[in-house]
Design a protein that fits this description.
The protein is mainly alpha-helical. It contains 17 helices and no strands. The relative contact order is 0.12.
Length: 436
């Protein structure tokens, strides 16, 4: 039944995307982030659902008139240059054929990121994009939070199989970054019961993140929580929610969880932590000796045998910074850091300038919360290999398009735009007859 449901949604969405390609962006985002087909048990599990969504969206893009240039701001130019450098790095790498699958996966993500920039040309579409992005992870987070509470935190929360967030550590960071986006969406809700419901979902996502037993995720949630409280307009409410979460969730976590968190202090005695540091050293040395980096992966035995200090075992970078450094060299790392620094500044511009007008208040809320998420990404990403994960790129799309929307005073033109009416789900009201 699940297989039929997932495939049915994908096929209907793909057909819809042929006429309204922005729907295809939503479909791709849902599949790429949530991976709903990985929760099926039969033919849908390995079905090319993402490819179906992408092809339908690109075909629709060819015929739609509602498109714009993807280069709407500095972050998009930097992303283009980074994608170009990644491609050069791959071609100049040590295993071009072996790295093709990873390059292909990353380029598809970047391609659809630019497609989103082309098609999401209204406020309603930007907010819908935020709902799909955050909602895809919120569903997993709510489920994981309930699981954590029911099992007393004795079992780890994992993400969908064969996805960016399959690993418990990656799942933790994704959920942590989602919480500020959920708060942004909460601020846009007018009904009290919906706002309270969103608070419950946010708390469950926090519980699920803690239930992953991820040390990097735990550090990220501390840093992001402090920043979230500082930036929120409702400091008392957010502070009470944080205090409630601490008093409710942490005392019920098992001793195994506490023992794992204590290893943060004595990392020098933790083989796993020292393995990560060794991988970072190798990444540094690879970048020093290879201008273009090693390609899409520097995890090759020859590098670890040559540069390993603590061991010669090949390990993942477990850091967005050292992953990019080892893969794409110092130029790649510079472009990658510049992308997120400029995106953060764009979000800051939104936070400051969006509050000047009631019509743009939502953009201010978005900018503030994206900044909080990026802080979580910067801290948690220091210990996780999530350089190419969709979520931060989606946030970049949101703030770039929202800034363009504010700067162009688009609300003066969009007062009567109805997305449901645009896609035929709501009949437009008939024009009133006039009398002489």
């Amino acid at each position: 039944m699940r297989d039929l449901l997932v495939v049915g949604i994908v096929l209907v969405g793909a057909i819809w995307a042929l006429r309204h390609p922005w729907i295809g962006v939503m479909l791709w985002t849902w599949i790429s982030i949530m991976n709903p087909h990985r929760y099926t048990w039969s033919f849908a599990y390995d079905a090319p659902v993402a490819a179906i969504a992408a092809v339908a969206t690109l075909l629709g893009l060819l015929f739609t008139k509602e498109r714009q240039s993807p280069f709407q701001g500095a972050p998009t130019v930097i992303l283009f240059l980074f994608a170009l450098w990644v491609t050069i790095s791959w071609l100049m790498g040590v295993d071009v054929a072996g790295d093709y699958a990873q390059w292909d996966k990353v380029m598809k993500i970047y391609l659809m990121t630019f497609v989103a920039l082309v098609l999401l040309n209204h406020k309603q579409k930007i907010i819908a994009f935020a709902w799909v992005t955050a909602g895809s992870l919120a569903i997993l987070g709510a489920n994981g939070g309930v699981f954590t509470l029911l099992t007393g935190g004795n079992y780890r929360v994992w993400g969908p199989d064969f996805s960016f967030i399959a690993d418990n550590n990656h799942m933790a960071l994704a959920l942590i970054m989602t919480i500020p986006l959920l708060h942004f969406l909460q601020l846009q809700l007018s009904r009290a019961w919906l706002r309270h419901g969103m608070t419950v979902v946010m708390l469950l996502c926090a519980a699920a993140a803690i239930g992953t037993h991820s040390r990097g995720g735990f550090l990220a949630i501390i840093a992001m929580t402090v920043f979230l409280w500082w930036r929120s307009r409702h400091k008392i409410l957010i502070g009470m929610a944080i205090l409630f979460a601490v008093l409710v969730f942490l005392p019920f976590m098992p001793e195994a969880w506490w023992e794992r968190m204590r290893t943060i202090d004595d990392y020098a005695e933790d083989p796993s932590a020292m393995g990560r540091i060794n991988a970072w050293i190798v990444a540094w040395e690879v970048a020093k000796d290879n201008f273009f980096g090693a390609g899409m992966s520097y995890q090759h035995q020859m590098f670890f045998s040559l540069y390993g200090v603590h061991e010669t075992v090949v390990r993942a970078a477990h850091s967005i910074y050292f992953q990019i450094l080892g893969n794409h060299g110092f130029v790649g790392l510079l472009l990658y850091l510049l992308l997120w620094i400029v995106t953060y500044r764009y979000a800051g511009w939104l936070r400051k300038n969006g509050r000047k007008n009631p019509e743009t208040r939502w953009a201010s809320d978005l900018g503030a919360m994206v900044q909080v998420s990026l802080v979580g990404f910067a801290v948690g990403g220091a210990f996780l290999s999530m350089s190419y994960f969709d979520l931060p790129y989606n946030m970049m799309v949101m703030v770039v398009l929202a800034r363009r929307w504010v700067e162009s005073r688009a609300w003066e033109r969009e007062a009567n735009i109805d997305l449901l009416g645009m896609i035929g789900l709501r009949r437009k009201p008939a024009a009133k007859a006039t009398t002489a």
